[in-house]
Protein: Parvulin-like PPIase
Amino acid sequence: MQAINRSKFIKQALHSIGAAIVISGSLAASAANAQSAPQGQIVIPDDVKMFGNDNPNMRRATAVVNGSVITGTDVDQRLALVLAANQGKVSDEEKKRLRLQVLRNLIDETLQIQEAKASDIDIAQAEIDQSYARVAAQNFNQNTDAMDAYLKRIGSSPESLKRQIRGELSWQRLLQRNVAPFINISEDEVNEVLDRLKASKGTEEYRLGEIYLAATPESHDQVAQNAMQIVQQLREGGSFVAYARQYSQASTAAVGGDLGWIRLAQLPGELAAAAREMQTGQLVGPIEVPGGFSIIYLIDKRQVLTADPRDAVLALKQISLDFPKGISEAQAGAKAEAFAKAISAAKGCGDVEKVAAGIGAQVVANDQVRARDLPGPIQNAILQLSPGETLPPFGSIDDGVRILMLCGRDDPQVDSGPSFDQLMSQMEDERINKRAQMYLRDLRRDAIIEYN
Structure:
């Protein structure tokens, strides 16, 4: 493994610090003889009193990793991202644990960036800025200026998030160069899995999110405790995607821990046993697995090579009626009942606009609604309708009352399953992930880390 090159700036800084320590040691020695010091010698009294406060903007080192400094400010700004994902609902004691985990993550991130640089892999700033803009648009529905302002408002910074992006891109590029070329999946292996997949037609497959925390025998108990704290925060409303990005040590961290669609046979036995009993939206963990702990979240499940009704594309019309201000619940109930009766008189979707106009209601049409994207109770009920039929009215006093009418439905085609190339890519990714974990363990083992 190539040695990590330290920058000239860091060397100069460390040299200056060392010089300062030598000078202060000499001054301390001379202080002992302050009473008999000859004229012209620097004299420092025993009862030294410092005037003025420390500079609040001074960045103090929390850890120095192979010469690269991680400051308390770095930790605070990355921690702010996690706290924002939990809407600030984190106890002081939990914040201390989170700080330690964030510091460990920053150490790993630093090692990954350093190793990539040692392999002559440099991520252009333009690529980082482009990824930052994409994160702002996809995850926060904001432009970069609004994203900058948001990060500063929560106590983080654009630079902190961009450093995380640099770490992810550096590590991915490094694995592509140093690991991926040595991963070999034979055609026979892929064909064997394809045959098993066809034989399992009708059985269920799962879309899971995972947060993986590596543990050694020495760190086992501490990592287990950290994992339990993460589970608690997630159950209190924390964002699984945000926690996966910050804490997971699997390669899927960059995509929020999403493992994609997999069958239980593809999972370690411990995870397969847990997933088999899970319901959609359920969180389970921490589960001890070889090498660490996993927290899993069931995003969805479906039957293998079988059309799922929830993948149907629906044409819907929503008819809505606002309630007057100050209306009572009883009055709203009566008005909703009359509204439903009026809409039921409509002769299908072609007549609903005319009926709605007669009672002062509004109609919105959308013919590209996936049943899977609707809320659970509505999703199940609307799949039982025929064109022209409606769901019962729903809403609130503040939002008014609404009715959904089904106007058409395009049923999904039978899923043919992954292609040969798709399955080979998935198998390669799994093996790269295992090698990546070993690679990072080696980097940690060989690192020189000084803590403040």
Observations:
- Confidence is low (pLDDT under 50) at residues 1-41, 48-60.
- The first helix runs from residue 8 to 31.
- The chain has three domains: 1-39+58-192+422-452, 204-303, 309-410.
